[in-house]
Design brief:
This protein has eleven helices and 37 strands. The protein is of the alpha+beta class.
């Protein structure tokens, strides 16, 4: 009798709080609310969803017999086998272990929400306070290496979490601000100021005027940076917290992490950061020089993408550093107008290792997309175009082609940040290398949805895909 009482007490104490608590919960798949016939279960503080209804909402192909312990799911040429009443899922030549058991609750199979992230690679945003759950099939991080000529500005876009590493020179700060606005950015969760070179942080005035900044990270013991932070410009918008660089990790959710790597202070140093999405790693080195690379060589490891230090200068990205990090791809932020960067010696060093090279001077803004399974790199804009003058009354534009190749800007959109006017460049508008050309423009009738009117004092040029 005593044993039975003990067993009952243990079952009540441990099982009831752990198994199911039913509460109203709003679930969205790709932005559309999913309406369930039955309430969603909460298991150990995490949603467990009606499996078959969720699969249908996500347009996933599945097979399940009513009395079977197995559910087959087919997604992107992979077959997954879900075993009911266990935490086990097989598929894609792997065995997955979920946080909670796949249960049969009141005759309805319930799948833990981490199944969508761990197994299928979806992006999952579980907001406990709002009691809402958002699921997207694509769990992408986009890294924008913005073309700011001789300078650096890197925008990392992960849904509602935005990171900006440097802002280009003062001359380019307004352009960087407009670029972020074009992608719907209204605040910056993390602002990294790698070091105090003007071509890296000169544009911060425009960034802080336009965006609320949650956290600023800057090099330790840098009086110039601290002076900038305490200046009038920073008080225009509230900055929640200021941190000096140290070893730290920001968990962005869904296997996405942003690490700050402490490499010491002093000459040739910068704030160094590592972005990690599942098995893909991207290293950002600011203007870190070879001496600092070598001093900290033990903290580096294999990566996929490297942002070359100091615009591809000979004093950075040493052979030893490349042998340790072994990047597949190197991105170099540099200018057409500066023949010293990147160094021919560095380019040869990279080519000898069969590393793919992407230069903003050749390709314009470069975007690397990380999807949790790998990455791909693309350039998104016409580079080397300088807007010399615009005459809205007579509908003329003068541009300079600063490159060594023919550039066709037919049909591109010209947007005035001051007046909000939108024009298109006439067909057949191709500019010869190194030339100044006068083209006709006309008022745009078909204004695509990608155009946003930023708070900007100059003109912006969009290509036909909406790239700025």
């Amino acid at each position: 009798m005593l044993k039975r009482i003990v067993i009952i007490v243990i079952a009540v104490f441990f099982v009831i709080p752990v198994v199911h608590g039913l509460r109203p919960l709003k679930v969205y798949m790709e932005g559309r609310q999913v309406i369930f016939e039955n309430p969603v279960a909460i298991v150990n503080g995490s949603p467990s969803l009606p499996m078959l209804e969720m699969f249908e909402a996500a347009n996933l192909e599945y097979r399940h017999s009513k009395n079977s312990r197995f559910v087959s799911l087919y997604y992107e040429d992979n077959h997954y086998l879900i075993i009911l009443n266990t935490r086990i899922v097989f598929g894609n030549n792997q065995k997955f272990l979920l946080d909670n058991v796949v249960t049969d609750y009141n005759g309805i199979p319930q799948v833990p929400v981490d199944f969508f992230h761990k197994v299928l690679g979806f992006k999952v945003d579980w907001n406990r306070e709002a009691h809402s759950l958002n699921i997207w099939k694509k769990n992408e991080v986009k890294i924008h290496f913005i073309d700011v000529e001789q300078g650096e500005a890197i925008f990392i876009d992960y849904g509602d979490y935005d990171i900006l590493i440097d802002s280009g020179s003062h001359e380019k700060g307004e352009l960087v601000s407009a670029y972020l606005q074009n992608y719907g950015t209204d605040d910056i969760e993390l602002l990294v100021m790698t070091h105090d070179d003007e071509e890296h942080i000169g544009g911060m005035e425009y960034i802080r005027r336009m965006f609320h900044v949650e956290t600023v990270i800057l090099p330790g013991t840098n009086d110039n940076m601290l002076s900038l932070l305490s200046g009038e410009v920073f008080r225009l918008n509230q900055v929640t917290r200021i941190m000096q660089d140290d070893n730290m990790t920001f968990d962005l959710g869904n296997n996405v992490f942003f690490h700050i790597l402490e490499t010491g202070d002093g000459y040739g140093s910068s704030v160094v950061a590592l972005l990690e999405h599942t098995n893909t790693k991207v290293l950002f080195t600011g203007d870190m020089e070879a001496a600092v690379e070598e001093k900290n060589i033990e903290i580096f490891e294999d990566i996929d993408i490297l942002k070359a230090g100091n615009h591809g200068g000979i004093e950075s990205t040493s052979s030893k550093f490349l042998d340790v990090t072994r990047p597949e791809t190197v991105v170099i932020s540099c200018s057409i107008d500066n023949p010293l960067y990147p160094s021919d010696i560095l380019i040869k060093r990279l080519l000898n290792r069969k590393i793919d090279i992407y230069k903003t001077s050749d390709l314009g803004t470069i975007i690397a997309t990380l999807d949790g399974k790998g990455y791909y790199v693309d350039n998104c804009s016409i580079t080397g175009i300088e807007i010399v003058a615009v005459d809205e009354i007579n509908k003329k534009i003068i541009i300079r082609n600063k490159t060594s190749k023919m550039l066709d800007i037919s049909g591109c959109y010209l947007v005035s940040g001051k007046t909000g006017s939108i024009f298109r460049i006439t067909e057949g508008s191709a500019a010869n290398p190194g030339s100044f050309i006068n083209f006709d423009i006309y008022k745009a009738d078909d204004i695509p949805g990608f155009i946003r009117i930023p708070k900007y004092n100059q003109y912006l040029l969009y290509d036909l895909k909406g790239n700025l």
